[in-house]
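worker-03 picked up job from queue 'complexes'. Input manifest follows; two sequence lines, order preserved.
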Amino acid sequence: MIAFLVRRLGQALVVMFIISLISFSIQDNLGDPLRELVGQSVSEAERQELRDEMGLNDPFMVQYWRFLKKAVHGDLGNSYFFKRPALEVIMEKFPATMELVFGATLIILLFSVPVGVYCAINPRSWLTKLMMGLSIVGISIPVFLTAIMLIYLFAIGLGWLPSYGRGETTMVGFWETGLLTRDGLVHLILPSVALSSIMLPLFIRLVRSEMMEVLEQEYIRFAWAKGLSRTRIWFLHALKNTLLPVITVGGVQIGTMIAYTILTETVFQWPGMGFLFLEAVNRVDTPLIIAYLIVVGLIFVITNTIVDLIYGLVNPTVRLAGGQA
Amino acid sequence: MPLLEVRGLEVKFPIRQYELTALRDVSFSLDKGQRLGIVGESGAGKSVAAFAILNLIGRPGYISKGEIIFEGANLAKMSPQQLRTIRGNRINMIFQDPMMTLNPVLTIGTQMIECLQTHQNLSKGKAREVAIEKLRQVQIPSPHERIDQYPHELSGGMRQRVVIAIALLTDPSVIIADEPTTALDVTIQAEIMELLVELCETSDVALMLITHDLGVVSQVTQRTIVMYAGRVVEEGPTRQIIENARHPYTHGLIDALPERTNPGMRLNQIPGVMPSLNAIPKGCSFHPRCEHQTELCRTELPGYVGQEGIRIACHWVASQEQQQ
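worker-03 finished. Artifact:
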């Protein structure tokens, strides 16, 4: 277990190093940060001087080395726009994004397993055919379109749910949460549904196909021959085996969902990291862009580690301490 | 009255617009404590017959005709709920490949205790004791530790011992073993078979042994059924069948045994292959491979001939009998 975590930590460092290198090397192609930093009235000579001062004219490796030295101490540079540490700015928006991802994940977990299992054990029912049809539709519609349709229907048409922002939030330590107030929860519904709209159908199909494959296995036939009840065969013997691949694929997909938050947050004016990232790109706020990419990379590494740990708990043939599984 | 009696069993598989007949008019019976062998090549319908008894044929197959009388009740007509009280309780099964039979994510103990708790009103502690006792009976060393292990921690032979222990848990009256040693290492095949037979004998359990190994059948069983293309072609006491086979197909099977050929010589074989279910020949389904075929064999399905306890479906045998 400890050996596993140490190995994972090593991998994480390598991943973070590569991410920082990539994001650092694209910064020159994003545009000129000076254009946003200073007004029109500043002369070219003064701009050049400012560039020297900021170190923007140094060779790439010099700049990168300087960045890396600071980054090791948790300093990812100051945001050009906010004039504050980039990491601090990102972390302020971090809770909003995480709560959005949490809401979407909850929807996915709550619906994908029961619906997927139902579709697997009743492959011929009309409800299964309907679900499979709908899931194709769900996967094919882009997130921003789903989001706009949701707003049109539930916010404008029916007027049931708010269409933008986080609503009322409270501070729990450093974490600004919308989960504790009714207003905050109501604001979370539409963005979570929109964010889950691609992953949910994908998960339903994944659970269904894995479960159908498991149901064909010899040990399930043996379970029937043992005279066990249907519920025990489906929900213990089959489901436990179904969940193994679902956990592996699912963990990666939940990481990918963070990428979709950029779209969802933009449509719903959700004050999270994705929204901030898009603004940062517009403003050529390089330190903020790099900080965002590094934080997202870190979230990826952490979720994958958690997924591997859970997988080890469910699958007896994997022994985390023993190295090779 | 026999313990288990199968009468005129027919199993069909609807596939698109066709209906394939996997079993045709299969009848046999099994007495208490008796050991019956069912032999035939792959595709003869041996396994279908075995699974049909507990109505466990994979979809879309179904029993279209016939009766399966067990302890006075017709299993073919039972509701799934009633059938569950027979499955894994009164009639138990042993599958071919122990690597695939046990659920990989549940411990041996869980998979044994659930049988006892489903069919008998036992507490978990008591069920565990019974399970450990059965593991000891199948000669698994240190059953107290093994019971908490997962299947992947056991060898193939050990796993098949566990499967046998599961089959014996509820003190059934019939065990259906579908090629129980085929997937095992040759060195332990005999050991496992011996154990199975010994345990069936001591608990007076009837054994239905499905196999393509005539050698095993001759050592283990009292009666034998030979199947070809979904039909019983010969039935009789095992000794009679091995020493004095009448049906040309049974003849061919026995001639193909390696011990019937001198070392270094080519093994005898039956020419041709078993027809697939959608291309079963008219008349006697064995006729294209038979050296005694006549016009009658090509057109008419042979009925059964033979005296008490022996049945043979063959025109050639029938004509010989008439001449005598």
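worker-03 released lock.
Confidence is low (pLDDT under 50) at residues 321-325 of chain A.
The CA atoms of residues 239 and 275 of chain A lie 38 Å apart.
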